[in-house]
Amino acid sequence: MTIVTAEELTEFRSQVTDNPEALKALKVIEDCEGDLEDAAMVLAIRVGQQPDIANADWLEGLAKKCRAVICQDEYRDDLVNGNLGTVIANLTTAKLCPAILVTPVLVYVLQKGVNKFCQPLDSIT
């Protein structure tokens, strides 16, 4: 279980003030008491996806589907430098997952560590 603290939510909100989808996703994370995986499930169900609720690794799998984009140098640098809003906009444009799920995916990546998350791609370049 990945828990997002109230302080982290406040910081993320400050970075996405002009993105209603991201703000909605952060509100759901807050409503789920910071439980990122639970919030991602709620959001996925709201957009018509049927994640395997028994699969605790569902959010990780979704993040891995987006890894090739997230770990591109320019996006990776933005995440490492705390520019969440820029990466949300770019990942939303890539349409790898529903827009409402982009924020939980990126928060997951931030919580796990951007460089650690991208490390599998580093070994093939």
Compressed to H and E, one letter per element, the order equals HHHHHHHH
Overall pLDDT confidence: 89
Q: Indicate how many domains the architecture comprises.
A: 1
**How many β-strand runs?**
0
Spans with pLDDT under 50 lasting ≥5 residues?
A: none
Main sheet, how many strands, which sense, barrel? Answer: none
Number of helices: 8
> What is the percent of helical residues?
over 70%
Q: Specify the overall morphology.
A: globular
Please report the distance between the alpha carbons of the first and last residues.
31 Å
Helix/sheet category: mainly alpha
Query: What gyration radius follows from the Cα positions, in whole Å?
Result: 13 Å
Task: Explain what you see.
With 125 residues, the protein is mainly α. It has one domain (6-122). Helices cover 70% and strands 0% of the residues. Helix 5 (73-80) packs antiparallel against helix 6 (84-94). It is globular, with a radius of gyration of 13 Å. The protein starts with 5 loop residues before the first helix and ends with a helix. The model has no long low-confidence stretch (mean pLDDT 89).
